[in-house]
């Protein structure tokens, strides 16, 4: 598969793996997300409480981590002619702390054509990993992509 910003269904090979750049999960991310969603749970905003619960510090919201992973995926050098996002199956498997460097490892695990001509569905197996190479989130994302137009 070529590395490009826009790949068609035909360009995508099952088993192709790639990794995104990393982003540091910051205080502004967590407080901004808390303000946006109204989720001010103590484990996200109270350092002492998070430590009392056995964590080494405050945790980023799990859904914030998923959002950052999706953004990293979408800004990566490997891109797709996306029609629509269809499905997420996701698990939070480890803590994501403020200050962690989060990146995503992606593998094209499945692909199939749709009943509608000119479109296909790919499944990405994704692992969100921190700076210590520990998986903190994982799951799959299905997206509908365009097939290569005739003559392209």
From TrEMBL:
Residues 14-122 form the MaoC-like domain. CDD domains: R_hydratase_like. InterPro entries: HotDog_dom_sf, MaoC-like_dom, MCH/BMMD. It holds the Pfam family MaoC_dehydratas. SUPFAM superfamilies: Thioesterase/thiol ester dehydrase-isomerase. This is Acyl dehydratase.
């Amino acid at each position: 598969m070529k590395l490009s910003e826009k790949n068609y269904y035909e360009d995508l090979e099952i088993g192709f793996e790639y990794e995104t750049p990393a982003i540091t999960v910051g205080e502004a991310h967590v407080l901004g997300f808390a303000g946006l969603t109204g989720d001010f749970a103590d484990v996200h905003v109270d350092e002492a409480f998070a430590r009392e619960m056995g964590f080494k510090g405050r945790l980023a919201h799990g859904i914030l981590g998923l959002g950052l992973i999706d953004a990293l995926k979408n800004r990566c050098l490997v891109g797709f002619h996306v029609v629509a996002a269809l499905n997420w199956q996701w698990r939070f498997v480890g803590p994501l702390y403020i200050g962690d460097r989060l990146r995503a490892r992606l593998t094209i695990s499945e692909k199939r054509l749709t009943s509608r001509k000119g479109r296909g569905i790919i499944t990405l197996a994704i692992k969100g990993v921190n700076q210590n190479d520990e998986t903190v989130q994982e799951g799959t994302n299905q997206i509908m992509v365009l097939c290569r137009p005739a003559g392209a």
